[in-house]
TrEMBL record:
Gene that specifies this protein: Il6
Annotated family: Belongs to the IL-6 superfamily.
Lineage: Eukaryota, Metazoa, Chordata, Craniata, Vertebrata
Matches recorded under Pfam families: IL6
Any one GO BP annotation for this protein: acute-phase response
Molecular function via GO: cytokine activity; interleukin-6 receptor binding
Record-given protein name: Interleukin-6
Keyword Transcription: no
């Protein structure tokens, strides 16, 4: 929809802008494909922290991609619920990093300071990276579910 409505596509010139959003990522180094319990726990912490961090970015998307407000609101709610659920799977849930209000406000201010044309690209990058993060999250949770006795 972003590509159709705003002509913001992967191959557009604007996409060549440097992505300095510092969006959460899950990598193999986070242990999402390793079998040791400590690495599994590290992966779950990383996923939960990333989902909590994405909340601020999704609020920005909701504010800028107003035609999809309902869908983004639902996505944001589901993301928060998933972050909470995965946090409960962590051995020490208090180790999950949840951005505090000041950090969230600082990020929101930084995102809002963008020019309108950058706003569209930022929204696209957030949604693209969120999709990638969720794909890896699903793979990691399925893997962990098959190697660890918990229900997700």
């Amino acid at each position: 929809q972003m590509c159709e409505k705003f002509t913001v596509c992967e191959n557009s010139m604007e996409m060549l802008l440097q992505n300095n959003l510092n969006l959460p990522r899950v990598t193999e180094e986070d242990g999402d494909f390793l079998t040791f319990l400590s690495f599994q726990d590290k992966c779950l912490r990383k996923i939960s922290s990333g989902l909590y961090t994405f909340q601020t970015y999704l609020k920005y998307v909701q504010e800028t991609f107003t035609s999809e407000n309902q869908n983004v609101e639902s996505l944001s709610y589901s993301t928060e619920h998933l972050a909470h659920t995965i946090r409960q799977m962590v051995i020490n849930p208090e180790e999950v990093i949840i951005p505090d209000a000041a950090t969230q406000e600082s990020l929101r201010t930084k995102l809002k300071s963008s020019k309108t044309w950058i706003e569209k690209i930022t929204t696209h990058l957030i949604l693209r990276d969120f999709t990638s993060f969720m794909e890896k999250t699903v793979r990691a949770v399925r893997y962990l579910k098959n190697t660890r006795s918990f229900s997700a």
